[in-house]
Amino acid sequence: MRTMGGGSMRSLRSAAAVTVCALGVATAIAVPAMMDDGGDGDSKGGAQRPQTMRAGAETEAATDSCRDPEASLRPSSASGPAIKRIKNREVNGHKLNKLIAGVDQNSYRWGYRDPATGDLTGFDIDLVHAIAEDIFGDPDAVIFRTIPTSQRIKALQQGKVDVVVRTMTINCDRIKDVAFSTAYFQAGQQVLVADDSSITGYNKTLRGKKVCTAQGSTAEAELDKPDTGAEHLGAIKVKPVPNQLDCLVRLQLGEVDAVITDNALAAGQAAQDPSVKLVGSRFTDELYGVAMNKDDDDLVRRVNKVLENYRQGGAGSPWMRAYQKWLAKDFSTAQENPAPPAPVYKD
């Protein structure tokens, strides 16, 4: 195989960056304006056995030890205050009859716009449709709001969205601010670099290298850890950016040497762009959950009921069908024997 020279590789990266930038502009134009509360918006159209926290663990989870952040409320199809609020929400005197979901539009295979139709599609988007169908009987009863990584929690706290389904990791810091469903996917942090990079993973080969992360991401928290983060490795943590895609563009332009991000996202990017690659193994184990307002217990239980059904059916389950459709091709090298994580409950 002929090896590219430095100039050719830089040209390839620049071309890829231009493509990504153009895609970002196009999708930004296509996104409807974010609604204020009560405002108008356009609508778009082999599970493992559950586990229960040991006695006393719910109390422990509220303390600094936080041993089981992924433990959620048991599923229920009952309609409490949150479900009733969502169903009865009115706009200009008329019922909206739609779920409002915070999602991404730039994460390939997870939440992104189909170039042919302009519609939001992906693994996370399919899950949003399943939640909408359970609540309203219509999978397209959804208003999507695209939100940056750094605004996910604020959007829930301010009531701008009912749920956030956006490759959001469940962790001890976040459960102080929002509630989570049971986990629907397991991923981990990994290093994305240029194809000709000498970096081999999350290790000392990052010494003196510029590393990019998204603001408010798990990757940023990992780099900030004193014993294992950027300072320990001798890496240079550059100013975090609003979205992970911004890091990819900076990597393609040669402005940074590495990106730390979820391998679930990076696998799709590496599949799209031959000028970048994943290196090393994932150095964290993380679980994605649907985030909701901390006060919306009945909505949490309802989403967990949706996930209970979503996992059922083994190879024919809705979860596995979505995995095969969106993730299997690009994620096969980063995930062996895919299956939905076992739900963990605290009550």
TrEMBL record:
Keywords: Signal, Transport
CDD domains: PBP2_GluB (cd13690)
Domain Solute-binding protein family 3/N-terminal positions: 98-330
Region forming the signal peptide: 1-30
Region: Disordered, residue numbers: 37-87
InterPro entries named among the record's database cross-references: Bact_solute-bind_prot3, SBP_3_CS, Solute-binding_3/MltF_N
Signal in keyword set: yes
Similarity comment: Belongs to the bacterial solute-binding protein 3 family.
Name of the featured protein: Glutamate ABC transporter substrate-binding protein
The organism of origin for this protein: Streptomyces niphimycinicus
Lineage of origin: Bacteria, Bacillati, Actinomycetota, Actinomycetes, Kitasatosporales
